[in-house]
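Checklist before submission:
- one chain only
- standard amino acids only
- sequence pasted in full

Submission:
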Amino acid sequence: MESRERNPRIYLVASGKGGVGKTVVCANLAVALASEGQRVLVLDADLGLANLDILLGLTPQWNLRHVLERSHTLKDIVLTGPAGIEVLPASSGLPHLADLPREHSLAILQALGALAHEYDTVLIDAPSGVGVGARRFIELADELVVITTPEPTSVTDAYALVKVASMERPELKQALLVNMAQDAEEGRRTAEAVSAITQRFLGFPIPSLGFLPWDERVPLAVRRQKTFMLSDPLSAASRHIRLLARQIGAPREAVAAPPAVEFQWPNRIKKWLNINGEEPRS
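Returned file contents:
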């Protein structure tokens, strides 16, 4: 059967601070989207401190380091994970990868741009915080999904991320997901609090994607290196992640050729390389 070109949605899943369950959300959202019939690619964008493969119980033979060394292509390192999701693993324990030279960055992004057309949805698991490691991928996303918890420090850092993203790309769609809420009321209050802050200081409310409840089966699944979507499909967390996947939307229709998407990638790459004010070379 001839493979069709896709017009992928590219979501950057990010958080203002660590410890809010961002990677867990990203992995389980990927599984939920795949269960809805989508072909999903997940990129571990924490290039120096990767953990997505560990969370999924995968053992990569190759990763982005080998792509940078030009011993393998991006397609070579793709792993098949649970529910058929496909994963691009990064490297762990090599912090210098978090600040790639220009030519290495350009090579990876061009390869990712070409590979993305084979998928309905691309999820990018961003490094935590608002440093260059996270900001570089803001230029590549169609939408930013900001993960927060009800804790005040997490709410403050979520606002900081929204602010930075709106400065980098004012037109970027952003949405908030509250994780580890005790109940629907706490999830609603947290989302409203963040939205009120962004409205007051940035001039716009951030839409809410709802909440994921605190569920003791989630950390159990993490320790087992499983997704809770598959290990406990009837859990409260699984029910809510399925709702999130359906909210994000169904796969886009196939396209005959993707010239518009191919045109967007070079422009986004140029902006990404120019984050520190350095003019991209021609």
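Reviewer check: The chain has eleven helices and eight strands.
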